TrEMBL record:
Residue ranges constituting the Core-binding (CB) domain according to the UniProt record: 15-95
Tyr recombinase domain residues: 118-297
InterPro entries in the record: CB, DNA_brk_join_enz, Integrase-like_cat_sf, Integrase_catalytic, Integrase_recombinase_N, Integrase_SAM-like_N, Tyrosine_recombinase_XerCD
Entry keyword DNA-binding: yes
Swiss-Prot/TrEMBL GO biological process terms: DNA integration; DNA recombination
Protein name in the entry: Site-specific recombinase XerD
Amino acid sequence: MSLQPHQSWSPATPETAHQFTEAWLANRRLSEHTRTAYRRDVRTWLTWCADRGLEPLRATFLDVNTYARQLETRLAPATVARKLSGVSSWYDFLVKLQAVTTNPVGGADRPYVDRDHSATLGLTPEEVDALLAAAATAGKRTHAMLTLLADLGLRVSELVGLDLIDMSYERGHRTVRFTGKGGKARRRALTPATAQVLDEWLTERGLAAGPLFRTSTGGRVDRYAVFRLIRRLATQAGIAEAGRLSPHSLRHAFATTARAEGVPLEDVQDAMGHADPRTTRRYDRDRHNLDRDPTYTIAAARARRNSA
C-alpha cells in the first residue's frame, strides 16, 4: 500500500504502523546501524502502547511522559533522550502525512542531558598504546581494526561497514572512504604506520571483494564482536574498568589526544564528522585542564611586552 497524505488511518493497525515506520526510514538518509536503532525504538514505543490498549495515533504528551519516566527507571537519561528523539521523528513524519495533527513527543518532558559531559569511559594515550600492543598479538585483523579506531577515531558502525573497495589513493595520500552519521560520504587519510598495519591484514585477507573485515565464514564482522574484542584485550592489557570500555572509548581518546597535541578544534571536528563543535568539545576529556587556561598565554604575552 502506498502512503499518501489525507488518507484515513484511524485506528492504526500493527500492519499500518509497520508501513509508517518503513516509509519513514526510507525517506531518511541513515546508516544501517541508525536505521536499525530507530526501528527498534519505534517498535518499543508501539509495543508499550499496545500493552496498555493505547492507540498510538491518539497518544498525548502525557502518555509520552509516562513512557519516558518508565524508561528512566532502567536507562541513562541520554539513552532515554535518544529513544524519544527517534519516536519524535516518526511522529513528525506522520504529521507530514496528516495521519496525526500534532507530535505528542514535542510537548513531553524529556530528560535533561548534560551536553558538556559524556558517560563514555575514556582512555589515556598510554592505555591506547597498551591496547594496541595487545591487539598486535591477537592477529592481523584485530590489530588493523583497533588501529583504525584509535588512529582515525572512527565510529564502530563506520569501521564494520568498510569494504575493500573503500581503500584508495588521493593526492599522494592513502585514504579510506566510508559513510558517516547521517549518511554523509566521508574520507580520511591513513598515516604510513596505519597503512602498514592495514596492509598486513590485506595480505592475509586476500584480494576478494566484500567487507574489509570478514569473519572466518566470509561474513562482515559485527559491532558487537568489536565491543567484546576491546573488552577482552583491555583486560589482557591490565586496563582499569575494562568491562566498561567500548569502541567509542577510542574515539574519545582520539579527540582528547588531538586537542592536547594542539590540533585546532575545527580540524578535529571535521575529522570526527561532527556537525556541531560543541559535540567535539564534549569528547575532549582534557578540555578543563588548567594547564590550557588562556590566562597563562595572556600573562606570557604581557611579560614579553614589558621586557621589550
